[in-house]
Design a protein that fits this description.
Number of strands of chain A: 0
Transmembrane segments (chain A): 6-26
Number of domains of chain A: 1
InterPro entries (chain A): Cyt_oxidase_maturation_cbb3
Structural class of chain A: mainly alpha
Oligomer: heterodimer
Protein name (chain A): Cytochrome oxidase maturation protein
Shape of chain B: elongated
Radius of gyration of chain B: 32 Å
Largest sheet of chain A: none
Strand content of chain A: under 5%
Order of helices and strands of chain A: HHH
Radius of gyration of chain A: 19 Å
Keywords (chain A): Membrane, Transmembrane, Transmembrane helix
Organism (chain A): Bradyrhizobium nanningense
Chain lengths: 55, 729
C-alpha cells in the first residue's frame, strides 16, 4: 500500500492540472462561440491571418 | 449638403495602438459565411483581427489606430453580401455574460471536485465490504474533505448567496433547502471523519452541486443568448439621426450620441429616432406607432414629434427635447409606472413548490431524529440518520425540474421566432385564457401594402413601381416594393407634396395625389376602401388608382381561428377610429372589439377582466399599449414595436406572421405540463427514498445513485419540451 504515497498525490495533481486547463480555456474565451468553434474544427482553410506565418 | 457617417461612438481602443469595433451581421449562419467574412475583412491592409462569433452573429474587428474608417468594413461586408451594423453591448447583456462565465467556472470546479472525490469514494465503498484498514479509510475521507470543502465553498456561491438573499428578505426559495442540505452534509461528514466513522457524504454534497449547476448554467446560457439576439436586433434597427454638426453639414450619428438641444433633420420616409419639437418645415407625420391612429397628422413649427413617428411628405428640422418633456409621453409613463407598481408579484412554480417542500422535509428530518432517540438510539446515531434524510431529500431533481424545462422550451420558442424577456413568462403565458390584441402594427403589418394590385395591369403596375422609386414618400415606397421595381426611371422629377412625374417614350407618367394625375373622379369612387391612402397613376390619358394601406398580417385569420380552437377568448382594443377597427374585426371574425380606446381605457378593461378571473395576454406594439402590456397577466409585442412597449412586454416575436403568438402559447403550455410532471417525478423519488433514509440504512453509495438517477430522469423528461408541435394552425 506504500504505492498510495505516489499514486494519490499524482491523481490529485492530474485533477488539479485538468481544472487549471479548464479555467485557462474559459478565461481565454474558448467557450464564447461554441457554434463557431464546432465549425472551425472541420473548416478546410487555415485562418487567413495565421497562414503567412506558417508558410 | 454633405452627409458623413460617424462611428466614433462605437469604436474603442484595444491598447497597443489598436482600435476595436463590434459589428452585428445579418445572415451569417454557416461555416462558409464565417470563412468568407474573415478572409474578406482580413484582406484589408492594417486589419489585425477579424473574427466572427457564429453564436452571437457578430464580428470583432481590430485595426491599427487611425489608419481606417470603420465605414469601410461595413461597405466591404456589403460587397460580400452581408448587412452589418455597428454594435454596442448593453450593460444588461454584459451582466448576463459575466454571470454565465461565473456559473461555468463554478460548474468546472464542482465537476472536477466530484470526479476526484468519486475516485476516492469508490475505494472506500469497495474497501468497506472487503479488507480496508480504518486508517486508510480515514486517510481517504480526509483527502475527500480536502477537495470537497474548498470546492463546495467556491462552487456553492450561487446557491448560498441566493438563499441568504431570500432569508434576509424573510422568504424562502429552493436555494434555502439546497444550501442547508449541502452545508449539513459536509459538516456531518467532517464530524464523522473525525470519529473514524464508516460513512462520509462528501461525494453526495459535491455531486449535488454539480447537477444543480448544470441546470443553472443551461438556464443562464439561454438567457444570455436571447439577450445577444435582442442586442443584435436593436443594432439592426440601426437607430441613427441626421444631426446638424455645422451649418449645412450633417452627420449620421447613433441616437445614443444625441443630446437635448441638438437639431436633427427628418427627411420624408424616415422614422424619427428622438423626441422633440419641429422648428422648421411642414409635413405630415404618421403617429400610428405612438397612438394607434392611422390617419396622418400635420406637423409644422411647434408640433411635438415622438420617437417612432414616420415623416411622410416634407423635410423637417427637429429640436431634440428630453424625453419627459413631451406631454403625451409623460401621461403614458405615469400610467406605466402605476401599472408596474400594481403588478402583483407572480409566485413562480418553483417558489411555490419550495415553499411547500422545505418545511415538510425539515420537519421529517427533525421527527426522524426524535423518533430514533425515543426508540433508544444514541443522539449521535439519531442525528446522523436525520442528516441522511436531509441529504437524500436535498432537492436535486426538484432544483432541476423547472430550469431544464425552461431552457429547452425557450430554445424551442427561440427557433419559432419568440424571445423571452422574463424568466417566469413561460409559466404565465401557459395560464393565459384571454387575448387582447391591439390592431395597428399588431394584427396589421407596420408597413403599407397595395391592396388592389391584382386589379391593375401588370406592365402598368411595374411602370408605376419604377416611377415610385424616385420618391421617398412611404406610400410610394410601398408601391415600389409591391411592384418589385428595381430600376428607377431616368429624369423623374418629384414635386413636393404632389407626386412624381417623368416622360418615357414621349408619354408623360405621373404618380401621386389624385389631383396631380387628374384622377379625382376615379379616386372619388365609393367602392374603394375608405381607410386606404389613394394614390393615382396616369400614363398619357390612362388613369389608375392604387389603394394603399396597412394590411392584416398574412396569417392573422388562421391565428385567430387557432386561438378560438384552443378556447381562448379574443378581443381587439385599438386607439384607431371605429370604421377601421370594425373592418379588421369583421375580416378576422372577432365579435368583441372597441375603437378609439385610450391607454387608460385599455387598463380599465384589463382590470375588469382580471376581476372576473381571466388571465389576460396582451399583444400590442404601440407606445400607447405599454401601460396595458405591464398591467396584463402576460404580454407580447412584435419586434417592430415602440421601444417602451418592447421593453415592457414579457415576450417579443419576430417577423411578419402572427403565428409565433400561437406557437408560444402551445410551447408554454407543453412546458408547464412538463414542469408539473418533473415535480411529480421528483416527489415520487422522494417518497421512495425517504422511508429508506428514515430507517437509517442509507449509505453514501445509495445516496449518490439515487441522486444522479433522479436528476438524469428529470433532465431527460425535460428534453421532451423540444418536440412541442411545430404545426401551429
Amino acid at each position: 500500500m506504500e504505492i498510495l504515497v505516489i499514486l494519490v498525490p499524482l491523481a490529485l495533481m492530474l485533477g488539479g492540472a485538468g481544472l487549471v486547463a479548464f479555467l485557462w480555456s474559459l478565461r481565454s474565451g474558448q467557450y464564447d462561440d461554441l457554434d463557431g468553434a464546432a465549425w472551425r474544427a472541420i473548416a478546410d482553410d487555415e485562418p487567413p491571418q495565421e497562414a503567412p506565418a506558417k508558410r | 449638403m454633405h452627409v458623413t457617417r460617424d462611428f466614433s461612438h462605437y469604436v474603442r481602443s484595444a491598447g497597443e495602438g489598436l482600435q476595436h469595433i463590434d459589428l452585428a451581421v445579418e445572415g451569417v449562419h454557416c461555416a462558409g459565411c464565417m470563412a468568407k467574412i474573415e478572409r474578406g475583412l482580413s484582406a484589408i491592409p492594417d486589419v489585425t483581427l477579424a473574427r466572427v462569433n457564429l453564436t452571437d452573429r457578430r464580428v470583432a474587428l481590430e485595426w491599427k489606430a487611425g489608419t481606417l474608417d470603420p465605414g469601410r468594413f461595413i461597405d466591404r461586408l456589403e460587397e460580400l453580401g452581408y448587412k452589418a451594423y455597428p454594435f454596442e453591448t448593453e450593460s444588461a447583456e454584459e451582466a448576463e455574460v459575466a454571470e454565465s462565465r461565473f456559473l461555468l467556472r463554478c460548474l468546472g470546479v464542482a465537476a472536477f471536485a466530484t470526479m476526484n472525490v468519486m475516485m476516492l469514494s469508490i475505494p472506500v465503498w469497495s474497501g468497506n465490504v472487503s479488507d480496508m484498514l480504518p486508517e486508510q479509510r480515514d486517510f481517504f475521507h480526509w483527502l475527500s474533505a480536502l477537495i470537497a470543502l474548498p470546492a463546495a465553498a467556491y462552487a456553492g456561491q450561487p446557491f448560498f448567496r441566493s438563499a441568504w438573499r431570500a432569508l434576509s428578505a424573510k422568504t424562502t426559495n429552493m436555494d434555502v433547502p439546497i444550501s442547508i442540505g449541502v452545508i449539513l452534509a459536509l459538516g456531518m461528514s467532517v464530524v464523522e471523519t473525525i470519529h473514524h466513522a464508516e460513512h462520509a457524504y462528501f461525494d453526495a454534497a459535491i455531486m449535488l452541486l454539480t447537477f444543480l449547476l448544470v441546470g443553472r448554467f443551461l438556464d443562464q446560457n439561454m438567457r444570455r443568448r436571447t439577450r445577444a439576439v435582442a442586442g443584435n436586433l436593436a443594432a439592426l434597427k440601426a437607430e441613427t439621426a441626421a444631426k446638424f454638426v455645422g451649418p449645412g453639414e450633417i452627420s449620421q450619428v447613433p441616437v445614443a450620441a444625441i443630446h437635448p438641444g441638438d437639431i436633427v433633420l427628418l427627411r420624408p420616409g424616415e422614422r424619427c429616432a428622438v423626441d422633440g419639437t419641429v422648428i422648421e418645415g411642414r409635413s405630415e407625420i404618421d403617429q400610428s406607432l405612438i397612438t394607434g391612429e392611422t390617419l396622418y397628422v400635420t406637423a409644422e413649427q411647434g408640433t411635438p414629434v415622438y420617437a417612432g413617428s414616420m415623416n411622410i411628405s416634407g423635410t423637417l428640422r427637429v429640436r431634440v427635447s428630453a424625453a419627459s418633456e413631451a406631454t403625451l409621453l409623460a401621461e403614458i409613463t405615469r400610467l406605466l409606472d402605476n401599472a408596474l407598481q400594481a403588478r402583483s408579484r407572480y409566485m413562480r412554480l418553483a417558489d411555490r413548490a419550495s415553499r411547500l417542500y422545505a418545511p415538510v422535509v425539515h420537519a421529517t428530518a427533525l421527527l426522524t431524529i426524535l423518533g430514533w432517540v425515543i426508540a433508544g438510539a444514541s443522539w449521535h446515531d439519531a442525528i446522523v440518520t436525520g442528516v441522511a434524510v436531509l441529504i437524500i431529500t436535498c432537492p436535486c431533481a426538484l432544483g432541476l425540474a423547472i430550469p431544464t424545462v425552461q431552457t429547452v422550451a425557450s430554445g424551442t420558442m427561440f427557433k419559432s421566432g419568440v424571445l423571452l424577456n422574463s424568466g417566469d413568462a413561460i409559466e404565465r403565458l401557459a395560464e393565459a385564457d384571454h387575448v387582447i390584441f391591439d390592431k395597428t402594427g399588431t394584427l396589421t403589418l407596420p408597413d403599407l401594402e397595395v391592396m388592389n394590385a391584382a386589379e391593375i395591369p401588370a406592365e402598368i403596375f411595374e411602370l408605376a413601381g419604377r416611377l415610385a422609386l424616385s420618391s421617398h414618400h412611404p406610400v410610394a415606397a410601398a408601391v415600389a416594393q409591391a411592384a418589385g421595381a428595381k430600376s428607377p426611371i431616368v429624369g423623374a422629377v418629384e414635386e413636393a407634396g404632389q407626386g412624381v412625374r417623368a416622360v418615357v417614350d414621349g408619354v408623360e407618367l405621373r404618380l401621386g395625389r389624385p389631383s396631380f394625375c387628374g384622377a379625382e373622379t376615379l379616386a372619388g369612387d365609393s367602392t374603394l376602401d375608405p381607410e386606404a391612402s389613394i394614390v393615382a397613376f396616369s400614363k398619357g390619358s390612362d388613369r389608375f388608382v392604387l389603394s394603399v394601406r396597412q394590411g392584416l398580417r398574412p396569417d392573422a385569420q388562421a391565428v385567430i381561428a387557432a386561438l378560438k380552437a384552443r378556447n381562448i377568448g379574443i378581443e381587439i382594443l385599438s386607439g384607431d377610429r371605429e370604421p377601421v377597427v370594425k373592418a379588421a374585426a369583421d375580416a378576422l371574425g372577432v365579435p368583441e372589439w372597441r375603437a378609439g380606446v385610450t391607454p387608460a381605457d385599455k387598463i380599465a378593461r384589463i382590470e375588469e377582466l382580471k376581476r372576473r378571473g381571466a388571465k389576460v395576454l396582451m399583444v400590442g406594439d404601440g407606445m400607447n399599449d405599454a401601460p396595458s402590456l405591464a398591467a396584463a397577466h402576460v404580454s407580447m409585442s412584435p419586434i417592430s414595436a415602440a421601444h417602451l412597449s418592447q421593453a415592457t412586454a414579457d415576450l417579443v416575436f419576430l417577423g411578419r406572421p402572427l403565428a409565433p403568438v400561437v406557437a408560444a402559447i402551445d410551447a408554454s403550455r407543453k412546458a408547464l405540463q412538463l414542469m408539473r410532471q418533473n415535480l411529480w417525478l421528483a416527489i415520487g423519488y422522494n417518497l421512495l427514498a425517504v422511508p429508506v433514509a428514515i430507517s437509517g440504512v442509507v449509505t453514501p453509495l445509495i445516496a449518490a445513485a439515487a441522486m444522479s438517477g433522479s436528476s438524469i430522469l428529470v433532465m431527460l423528461n425535460s428534453l421532451r419540451a423540444r418536440s412541442a408541435s411545430r404545426e401551429i394552425v
